Amino acid sequence: MYRYDEFDTAVVRERIEEFRDQVSRRVSGGLTEDEFKPLRLMNGVYLQLHAYMLRVAVPYGTMNSGQMRRLARIARVYDKGYGHFTTRTNIQYNWPALSDVPAILSELAEVEMHAIQTSGNCIRNVTTDVFAGCADDEIEDPRPWCEILRQWSTIHPEFSFLPRKFKIAVIAAPKDRAAMRTHDVGLQLIRGEDGETAFRVFVGGGQGRIPHIAQEIAPAVPGRDLLAYLTAILRAWNLLGRRDNIHKARIKILVASLGIDAFREEVERHFATLRREDLRVPDEEVARIRAYFAPPPFADLPRTSGAFDRASLADPDFARFARNNVRRHRQPGYATLIISLKPQGGVPGDITADQMDLVADLAERFSFDEVRAAYEQNLVLPHVRLDDTPEIWRRLAEAGLATPNADLVTDIIACPGLDYCSLANARSIPVAQALSEQLADLDYQERLGPIRVNMSGCINACGHHHVGHIGVLGVDRKGEEYYQITVGGSADEQAALGEIVGRSLAADEVAPAVGRALDRYLEVRREGETFLQTVRRLGADPFRDAIYGAFNAVA
Amino acid sequence: MKIVTANRLSDGRVIYADASGDPVGALDQAGRFDGDAADLALSQAALRPATFVNPYLVEVDGGRPSGRDRFKELIRSQGPTVGNSLERP
Fold it and tell me: Which residues partner with A336 through β-bridges?
């Protein structure tokens, strides 16, 4: 994985000292809160309901064991002993004192991490496919390009005061495992006609109160022109995007109002004026960064594993874990292992310091010292030997980390909601917990197959409810929590927004209503058809009927 | 009746102004003010930016938050209703 060079180290160190001074001036009265707020946000510090919240970037979701142990230490020393992984592969701490934040940032810098640009109107942490470097459908590892984007976008003077935040995701396979088209810019790495790396570019995706799926703006931008093309996109938006209304400032609004063709013309106009050679990453620099992401020294192993097969036969619990949480790796004899952060009745994305330490140990011993944060608020050990999976599973199980529900209905994405967030209208966590408890039967979950339930506590959609196969949105109705349900959303390569099925429901009605929709799916599905395929075939009506039929019968 | 609430600058914790305008951590220790007195208490809190961050008024009825944001204010006063924070005060 990438290691900081002298420039990275200097930038991060200087930024910490700058922020230490800003905190000091805020405390001494030299800065007002209005002056301080944008400064703290650019360093990942929010002020939430109960405390400050610090969001730490995990660039493209990749960490080593030392970094994970440091995240554990920060949770233990400066917070309440846990952290919360988000859909943008960041980790959030809910209780740091402002006065401790400079020390926390210093601790992060020691392991080459930071919180720069995890908030504010700038280019945020670049995300990617959690199976990068593992998946057999991948054209090439997308992470070198993510790192190039990270370096280009960090404290970029032209793009530090954008109309709003700007999020980029990069994938390198036809299968989208990074919700790429929900981003302001989505990049799909492809092979260009010349055989070189190129990018299919999508623009104008986003969720929030006005959701849009990103549209294709360019079919094949050569890798050497990627930074220039992105500069042109950002420049067009920076100049034309609205700054008078926070709700209409994202690039999705500009793209939708101009139309993709007119926006493309704007971008190409800027692209034509750029000195592209100045924005071209030298080949040797691309090669240097690529070298950091070279495949680890895999052993030459048989495709199958006796230890794995024996454990699967001997222990039904391991067999279930293997079915649901162990994924095929392109290297024979290896697998990618998903660590679900969705225990039955737990808080989606939360992990304790002790659990983080265990994951670090497992990564160090079994996965070439690498662990990933996933879009789905889970962790992944990317490169483990099939032979080792039974032992890893046992150790995960001892720590409460072996829930065998990856991509099943209780693998719920949920934002912190009104329990923590100052923007939320309703709680997300208790509703997710209720659903998790109601659907705890793993046989039933496996019968249902892959279903993604996403929950947000407000229309800002941090829980990605718009693209959940089933989405749940918390709303405020005269001071009471209610929840709107959507079906048919998808964040994959066939990205779609869910359809609202009816009136909002009280909190205690949500889990039973979702349960009825799931039962209806089992009644109407065809052989081998997933929930999403069934919704796409039949539309929302059968699920609407299931959800509201009980109420209508009473009425 | 209204109370003044804010977050404390040093650690972000929820605080209230007591009857003297000093910060307290518990809602039941908050001073309750009527009309102009509430506006005055708010302005006094705003004059202490090294303690009170973003102070504002909250309606209370019988010592509990009332009005449209009553549930949010109840959670602010009592902490998260679920999750890991509960086990680690």
Answer: A327
Neighbouring CB atoms inside 10 A of A555's CB total 6
Give the pLDDT confidence score for residue A1 in this predicted structure: 86
- CB neighbour burial string for A368-385, b if at least 16 within 10 angstroms, e if fewer: bbbbbbbbbbbbbbbbbb
Q: Is residue A124 part of a domain?
A: no
Does A59 lie in the same domain as A184? no
Residue A300 inside a domain? The answer is no
In the predicted structure, residue A287 carries a pLDDT above the cut 60: yes
Report the number of distinct structural domains present in chain A: 4
**Alpha carbon distance B79, B89 (integer Å):** 10
Q: Return residues 73-92 of A near B (CB < 8 Å).
A: 80-82
Residue ranges of A 7-46 with Cβ closer than 8 A to chain B: 26-29, 32-33
Shared-domain flag, residues A357 and A314: yes
pLDDT per position as a tens digit, A222-279: 999 999 999 999 999 999 999 999 999 999 999 999 999 999 999 999 999 999 899 9
Cα A263 to Cα A448: distance, rounded to the nearest angstrom: 42
In a shared domain, residues A333 and A390? yes
Asked if residue A393 is part of any domain, the answer here is: yes
CA angle A248, A249, A251 (to 5 degrees): 105
Asked if the structure places residue A123 within a domain, the reply is no
Which of B71, B76, B82 has the CB atom closest to A429's CB atom?
Answer: B82
A221 DSSP β-pair partners: A199
- Work out the average pLDDT over A179-190: 98
Whether A98 has its CB under 8 Å from any CB of chain B: the answer is yes
- CATH number of the domain bearing residue A86: 3.90.480.20
Are residues A336 and A220 both part of a single domain? Answer: no
* Whether the predicted model's global pTM rises above the 0.95 cut: yes
Share of chain A above pLDDT 90, in %: 97
Regarding whether A362 and A220 lie in a shared domain, the answer is no
Domain end (from A373, A398, A423): A398
Q: How does the average pLDDT of chain A come out, rounded?
A: 96
Chain A residues touching residue B14 (CB < 8 angstroms): 49-50
Chain center to CA of A428: 17
Flag if B88 and A480 touch (Cβ within 8 Å): no
Q: Examine the pLDDT at A151 and tell me if it is beyond 80.
A: yes
Interface-testing mutation among B5, B8, B10, B11, with chain A (most A C-beta atoms within 10 A): B11
Q: How do the domains of chain B map onto residue ranges?
A: 2-78
For residue A82, give its domain range.
6-110
What strands lie across the sheet with B23-24, from one edge to the other?
B23-24, B14-17, B2-8, B52-61, B64-65
What CA–CA distance (Å, rounded) separates A341 from A405?
A: 10
A225: CATH: 3.30.413.10
Contact assignment for B76 to A47 by CB distance below 8 Å: no
Instruction: Work out the angle between the directed axes of helices A33-41 and A6-28 (0-180°, nearest 10).
Output: 160
Task: State mean pLDDT over B53-81.
Answer: 94
